[in-house]
Amino acid sequence: MAYTLLPAVGTAFYNGYTFSPFVETLGIEARPRFDKAHRTVTHTIFEIILRDRIERASAGGCDADFLTIRRQLEQPAGQLRYESKGHGGLNINIAGAKDVMWGPKTDVVSWKPKGRENAIEFTWRVEVAIPDCANARYTGYPMEWTWKYGVRKDYGGYSTRTISGYLRIPQTRQSAGATNLQDTADRFLESVIPPVPLGFQRIQNDHDIDESKCELTYTVSDQQLPAPLPAGVVKCSAQQQTKNAGAMNLFRWQTTLSARYEMLAGISPAVSWGHFVALVTDRVLAGKDKAAQDVVFLSLELGEPEIFGKPEATFGATWTWGTAIAQLLSASGLWRAVPNTSHAQWAASIGRASAPRGLAQFRLSPADDIIVDLCAGQTRFLRAMPPVQIRPPGLRGGQAILVSQPRPERSWLQLRLGVEWQPQNQLMAVPKLGEVTLRANPRGSVAPGFDPSDLTLARGAGRAAGHHVQQRTGSKLEFDLIGEALRAGYEIPAPQIASVAGRAAIQANSALNYFRQQCVVIGPVPIYRALWRLHYVLTELPPPSSQSRAKPVYDIGTAYPIGPGGRIPGL
Predict the structure, then answer these.
(1) Which residue has the higher pLDDT, 314 or 414?
(2) Residue 160, Cβ neighbours under 10 Å: how many?
(3) E strand or H helix that includes residue 328
(4) Predicted local confidence at residue 297, as pLDDT
């Protein structure tokens, strides 16, 4: 429809409709909006109210024309041009500037027929939300991010940190009538979730996306750990009790150690058996180092508390041992740090559990949602979301308990070696004899074919008192190589000492010597334990310079991770 009565003053255009020269601006407002922290303006809402009229002189009136215009003006997220009206100009969703809150949002406020069906006067209002600045960004970047911080302390001083936040992104339709999303606030989740502090465990990790998919709210809480947990364990409790084995028996003691482990999803609870074995072994050996004697195990218990629940395991062990009451506390193993644990090692083993998306790794993409619009001609609105598969995270090589095969040089979980020396100088005390008389065999001469039985040793009547010392052979050194080892994924070879201080060592075991090995953990990676006491002889003494050294060098080969060439500088 063309107008020739008045020249156009400026431009008012929306979603394909150009307002007539009769258009009148009834009002325009700009309302800045602050973020939740009231620190900055995130965007400005412009409200424009226009009044216009259409006329039709031909038969049929304005009904058809106004129906088309009304539908154009009711559609949100259309292109808006309002310029040369004494406002500074708005060009929205055309080239650069875009509405940041699903707009422009429109409203046909009222209309009134003029001259029956031949003319209509109507009032139209539109709201536009944009960052009103020279270097504004309209997509791909948050328009608001605020967060709260709080710390709670318990009576012992341990802290729990809680951070909750809010993020909003700008977005509008790609074009008027489009139903696909271009972005979601979920894309920024990893950017706003803080990392877990070392020595803390994440006990709350929640986030929500609103209906528009533009607003993200989240809350994380991190609780301080009194001690690091074993690798792959998300929750653990353990108790040890020691008491005297019987009434009025203050030398024989009985210790009971029990533990409950909850493993990270994807890790078999059988892995926790290795943790329990290491805990018991550490405390038993610590007791032996502190004068505990005659350790005897009485019972062992294994349990699966929730068959259809989370991966959990319970274990218990009871053993007796003896020591004087003065050494009870030090030999009991109580209050020892848990072996093979550190905050850094534990955090690395369960990192995906405390990650912003947890183990399931749920993500919300723009393709997962659609704008349901009765005017868009849609035939379906549900979209199938892909199934989620939880991948076992696995424990890293070199840790105490593994679910992947470690390298041989990093498979040793524990190794202890020691030497007990047994010097042998080959001296013997011989009793002194009295006079010795030789007499010939009556059978004849003592010439050829002499038989030792032809000689008779006869002691004189007066027996000499005392002894004298004889050395049968040269002096030699004997020693026992004692030790134990714990290894993941590989059997433990019997150690063999090749030399000591450059002198060959010969293995000469007796019934008292042994090498014992058993598999103590059956799982994805078996754990082997070995004990040994092996006897060696040095037939040739080291030179005096080597004997005088405080730490001789033992050459044990290359099978053990004890330095270049397997050389141990003293034990």
Answers:
(1) 314
(2) 17
(3) helix 328-331
(4) 82
CA angle 256, 259, 262 (to 5 degrees): 175
| pLDDT in the model for residue 40 | 96
Q: Left, alpha or beta for 116 (phi > 0: left; psi -120 to 50: alpha)?
A: left
- Rg (the chain; Cα; Å): 45
Each residue's pLDDT tens digit, 371-383? 998 888 877 766 6
Q: How many CB atoms lie within 10 A of CB 18?
A: 12
Each domain of the chain, given as residue ranges in start order, spans: 11-130, 144-226+364-368, 233-341, 408-426+474-569
Going 433 to 439 to 442 to 443, the CA torsion angle's sign is positive
Nearest-angstrom CA–CA distance, 88 and 546: 96
d(CA 504, CA 486): 28
| φ/ψ (deg, to 5) at 325 | -60, -25
Q: Say whether 233-341 and 11-130 share the same fold.
A: no
What is the sign of the dihedral through the CA atoms of 343, 345, 347 and 353? Answer: negative
> Given this model, what pLDDT does residue 41 score?
97
Mean pLDDT computed over 496-509: 82
Residues 6+ apart with CB under 8 A from 248: none
Measured distance CA(449)–CA(440) in Å, rounded: 13
Which is it for the CA torsion 335, 339, 345, 349, positive or negative? Answer: negative
Whether 46 and 18 have beta carbons less than 8 Å apart is answered as: no
> pLDDT tens-digit profile of 29-83?
999 999 999 999 999 999 999 999 988 756 667 888 888 999 999 999 999 999 9
Q: Which of 185, 173, 174 has its CA nearest to residue 218? A: 185
Contact between residue 20 and residue 52 where contact means Cβ atoms under 8 Å apart: yes
Q: Which CATH number fits domain 233-341: 3.30.1360, 3.40.50, 2.40.50, 2.60.40?
A: 3.30.1360
DSSP character string of 156-181: TS-EEEEEEEEEE--B--SSTT--B-
DSSP string, 88-117: --EEESSSS---SBS--EEEEEEEEEETGG
Picking from 466, 529, 479, the residue whose alpha carbon sits closest to that of residue 508 is 479
Give 486's strand partners.
Answer: 414, 529
Cα–Cα distance measured from residue 328 to residue 339, given in angstroms and rounded to the nearest whole number? 21
563 pLDDT band, cuts 50/70/90, is low
Taking the CA atoms of residue 457, residue 458, residue 460 and residue 461 in that order, the dihedral angle to the nearest 10 degrees is 140
The topology under which CATH files domain 11-130 is: STM4215-like (3.30.2000)
Token pair for residue 320? 């007796």
- CA 414 vs CA 401, 486, 527: distances in Å: 12, 5, 11
Dist CA 522 CA 528 (whole Å)? 9
Helices (H), 176-222: 189-192
Cα three-residue angle 70-75-79, rounded to 5 degrees: 105
Calculate the dihedral angle through the C-alpha atoms of 77, 78, 79, 80, rounding to the nearest 10 degrees.
Answer: -80
By the 8 A CB rule, do 566 and 555 touch? yes
